[in-house]
Write a structure and sequence with these properties.
It is found in: Mitochondrion matrix. This protein is an alpha/beta fold and 300 residues long. It is built from eleven helices and eleven strands. The longest helix is centred in the last third of the chain and has 21 residues. The protein starts with 7 loop residues before the first helix and ends with a helix. The structure holds octanoyl-coenzyme A.
């Protein structure tokens, strides 16, 4: 049974037979090809599912910086759920339609000058997205085609594989400390699971944003490729992962990630309380305001 407040997704049995496409409808006129592609789009995210390969392409399209606002997070979670429930979909490539930016992380304006109810609603949406993505039965490949700080980095870290454009101007990392805030334990756990304890500890304490070549050296991203080859490479990696039986891969993924997922599920309400208490402190609000001002000044 699901404990209260737990995503139904976490409690669902894995879709072992996801590889099996539904048989053609008896109403389908013979000789007419099935639609090879299906797409859906909302304000912030566009998704295209290629039914012949079982791979969906999810593109963030929320300029200027794909910041993870409450609306973005909600659309992201819904899009993932749709794909997860679609028997024709076995994998998703996550990338950005905004030049030079993968995602600028959590939308700081959602954490500034709002009331406690808003902070709680926002944080629940952040948790929800992470729980869905990290526990996904699909193969998830991040094609990181731009900068990806903080929450943007978490999205990439939560995927099964990360390929980044080899442009040294693009950086990635959990830079929360630079904003005067602290990455929550499940951000940290996800990071440790990718790069190991020592690298994570140093990088988190310093709030480092690593240029693409350094991120690759640290193991934060698995591969670097020229930007124009990114999606082609992501498709090739996806095909490799999908060549394995879904059930073996899914059970292995679950075994590797379960402890970290369970920890948040068990402490979800406490984590929301910690966040709302921390973020509403005047000293933290002041740090965030100063950080936003710094971003604006940098521009002018
Ligand atoms: N949230 C809201 N607005 C943002 C964000 C953001 N994360 N990032 C950028 N913006 C805004 C800028 O203020 C600017 O607004 P305006 O046009 O009104 O001046 C606009 O987006 C464009 O930004 P830039 O001019 O800076 O665009 P660039 O292309 O030059 O640079 C970058 C893009 C590299 C993404 C740069 O904007 C940047 O570094 N942004 C900050 C990224 C960041 O530090 N994000 C951290 C967010 S916190 C988080 O994700 C985890 C929090 C965990 C909370 C735990 C608490 C307990």
């Amino acid at each position: 049974l699901c404990p209260p407040g737990v995503l139904p997704l976490c409690c669902r049995p894995p879709a072992w037979d996801r590889a099996t496409r539904p048989p053609p409808s008896p109403l389908q006129p013979p000789g007419l090809p099935l639609a090879p592609c299906r797409s859906f789009s909302n304000n912030k995210i566009q998704v295209e599912l290629d039914e012949s390969s079982g791979v969906a392409m999810m593109k963030f399209k929320s300029p200027p910086v794909n910041s993870l606002s409450l609306e973005f997070l909600t659309e992201f979670s819904i899009s993932l759920e749709k794909l997860e429930n679609d028997r024709a979909c076995r994998g998703v490539i996550i990338t950005s339609a905004v030049p030079k930016i993968f995602s600028s992380g959590l939308d700081i304006t959602e954490m500034c000058g709002k009331n406690m109810e808003h902070y709680a609603e926002f944080w629940r949406a952040v948790q929800e997205l992470w729980l869905r993505l990290y526990s996904s039965n699909m193969v998830t490949v991040a094609a990181v085609n731009g900068s990806s700080p903080a929450g943007g980095c978490l999205v990439a870290l939560s995927c099964d594989y990360r390929i980044m454009a080899e442009n040294p101007k693009f950086s990635i990392g959990l830079n929360e400390a630079q904003l005067g805030i602290v990455a929550p334990f499940w951000f940290k756990d996800t990071f440790v699971n990718v790069v190991g304890h020592r690298v994570a500890e140093r990088s988190l304490q310093l709030g480092s944003l690593h240029p693409a070549p350094e991120a690759h050296k640290l193991g934060l991203v698995d591969e670097l490729v020229p930007e124009e080859k990114l999606l082609e490479k992501a498709a090739a990696v996806m095909a490799q992962w999908l060549a394995l039986p879904d059930h073996a891969r899914q059970l292995t993924k679950s075994m590797m990630r379960k402890a970290v997922l369970d920890r948040l599920v068990a402490h979800r309400e406490e984590d929301i309380k910690n966040f709302t208490t921390f973020i509403s402190k005047e000293s933290i609000q002041k740090s965030l305001r100063m950080y936003m001002e710094m971003l604006k000044k940098k521009k002018g």
